[in-house]
Structures are given as C-alpha cells and as structure tokens.
Design brief:
- The structure is a single chain.
- It is built from ten helices and twelve strands.
- By secondary structure, it is an alpha/beta fold.
- The chain has a domain of 163 residues: P-loop containing nucleotide triphosphate hydrolases (Rossmann fold, 3-Layer(aba) Sandwich).
- The strands form three sheets. A six-stranded mixed beta sheet has the order 6-7-8-3-9-10, with helices on both faces.
Length: 321
C-alpha cells in the first residue's frame, strides 16, 4: 500500500546571508526532512544553530540579504520558489499556521484579542459583515481553549500562557494543514510548558494536521514529538524516532548524546568547547573539535547513514556498553 504524501517535504534547503564585503554566513545547509499528517517533528538544538532561520525560510520571511536554495513542497507549492504574493495570499495562515516565539510581542498592544481574531478571520476566510467574523473568532478561541471572558482584553492583560493560547487561536483560523511552532514554550514555567505542548498535540491528533515544532526545550520535545531532527551549526545531523532517541537505544550522533545530558533526569555532562561561527565553518564535521570520537577522517564532510551525519556514529554495541 502506497503511503500518503507528506504534508511538508523539504529537500536540500539552504539559507545563507550575504554580508558586507562579500562574506557569507551559512545559517542552514542542505536540510532534508518530511512531516506527515498527524505527526510532530521537533527540530532541536542549541540557540543559534539555524532552527528559526529554517522556519523563516519556509515562510519567506528572511531579510533581503538572504539567499535560499533547495525545495520545500507544501500544498502544491514550492515555498522557496514562491513569490511574496503567493506566500501572503495562499500560504501564510492558509497552508501554514504560525505559532510564534514570544507571542505577546507579535500582538498589537492597543487591540483586543477579539479584534486580532476577527481581522484574521476576514483576511483568511473572506467572511464579511459583523456577526459571522465574531462567531468565527469565538470558535477559534474555543478551539485553542482561550477563555471567552478574556477576548476583550489587550495583550498586556494576559499571562504568558494565555498569550500563547491567543497565538494558537490565530494560527488555527485558516485551518492550515501545517502548524509551525517556533519556540512555543519560551518563558513559560514547567506546568505551562506541559499544558502548551499537550494543547498543540491535541490539534494534530486525528485532525490531518502536521506540526513542525522548533525548540531548544528537550523535555517539551520528548513529551510531544513523534520524530526529532537535531541541528548543529546549520546542519541536521540526526533524524530519528523520538521514542528510540529519548529512550533506548538512544541517539547515534555524539552531539545528540551530549544534548540529552541537559535533561533534568540525566547526569549533567557539559559538551566541551563552543559551537563554531556560522561564517567560518570547517570543511569537515563542524562538531569534530568538541567530539571525543573524532579522528582524522572527520576533516572530511561526514556521510549520512541511517539518518545520522557522522563518521563515527554510535552503534547498538556502543549504546549497550
């Protein structure tokens, strides 16, 4: 039986910034991944590794000095080749619902949440008049578990958790097949983190939607993800099933294994050194200077085997040791 096409299919996505003097910064290099209906793919890694640049590239929101390459197929469009008119009129909100980082900063401070929702309803659905947008806005709020008695409040009157629910309600208005959540748990306490990811999970289970969640919060990724993609220095270095990644046999890439030591229930063992500058990446494996498994072979670009880009990935025998 043929498997259905993924909601989002990314092949060879690269994003570089042209700086004064002709210097180029490779923020994302040759990313490959799919996200299926009903699936959450968590894109994880340290701050500055290129995760949010990748998200902005998908939405056509990179600055003018950015150059992109590759392909990102969604709803019949190649997002990287689409012009601004197509992205604004047919993609953003309709095919991709964005849940942004720090949602309160993305809301207009002088407008109520109801006003934000009604404007989004009119823009995405074409519904006009007064009663219909109001009803649709209230329905979107209800789907995101945003309390009706807070709809006439302004963003500064909301807690961090409610601001996040308002952002989710806005992302759901267009019934987009892909939700893109960029660091959705930033600034939330642990209880609110759990509630936020559970709410996101509720909106993909049995709905046909897919979720691409960008996060440095490994505990949140472990709670919600079906698969994980690990980024380091602009590259996806490991793509794995979440259960195997967070449990047994565990990650295969040395960087991924180092990341997991940051989880509260694991012995903290810091990764030595610092990530490389994206404008001065080595020709070979970017993680080699920090890796205790590195050899002379790591001076060359690593091969990709079983979803892991590494010359010396961990194998089951290593993981049992």
């Amino acid at each position: 039986m043929t498997e259905p096409a993924p909601v989002l299919s990314v092949r060879g996505l690269s994003a570089r910034f042209l700086m004064p003097g002709g210097r180029r910064i490779a923020a994302v290099t040759d990313a490959h991944f799919d996200v299926a209906a009903g699936e959450c793919l968590a894109l994880i890694g340290e701050s500055g590794c290129g995760k949010s640049v990748l998200a902005s590239a998908l939405l056509g929101l990179l600055p003018a000095n950015a150059q992109t390459a590759g392909e990102a197929r969604l709803g019949g469009f190649d997002l990287l080749a689409a012009d601004e008119r197509t992205l604004a009129g047919k993609v953003r909100g309709r095919l991709v619902g964005l849940v942004p980082q720090s949602p309160a900063a993305h809301l207009t401070p002088v407008r109520t949440i109801r006003s934000h929702l009604e404007e989004t309803v009119r823009a995405l659905t074409g519904v006009r008049g007064r009663a219909a947008p109001r009803a649709a806005a209230e329905a979107a709020a209800a789907r995101a578990a945003f309390p009706a008695d807070h709809l006439d409040r302004h963003p500064h009157e909301l807690s961090g958790g409610l601001a996040q629910r308002a952002a989710l309600a806005l992302a759901l208005v267009g019934d987009a097949p892909l939700l893109l959540a960029d660091e959705p748990t930033t600034g939330l306490d642990r209880d609110l983190v759990d509630r936020t990811v559970d709410e996101l999970r509720r909106h993909i289970d049995g709905t046909g939607r897919a979720l691409l969640m960008i996060t440095h919060d490994l505990a949140a990724a472990e709670r919600i993800a079906d698969r994980v993609a690990v980024m380091y220095a602009g590259r996806i270095v490991e793509l794995a099933d979440a259960t195997a990644f967070f449990g047994a046999p565990g990650p295969r890439h040395p960087y991924s294994r180092g990341l997991l030591q940051a989880l509260p229930d694991r012995a903290f063992t810091p990764i030595p050194g610092l990530p490389p500058e994206l404008g001065d990446l080595p020709a070979g494996c970017a993680f080699a200077p920090r890796c205790d498994r590195a050899t002379a072979a790591c001076a060359k670009p690593p091969p990709v085997t079983g979803g892991t880009a590494c010359h010396h990935p961990y194998v089951p025998e290593d993981l049992r040791a």
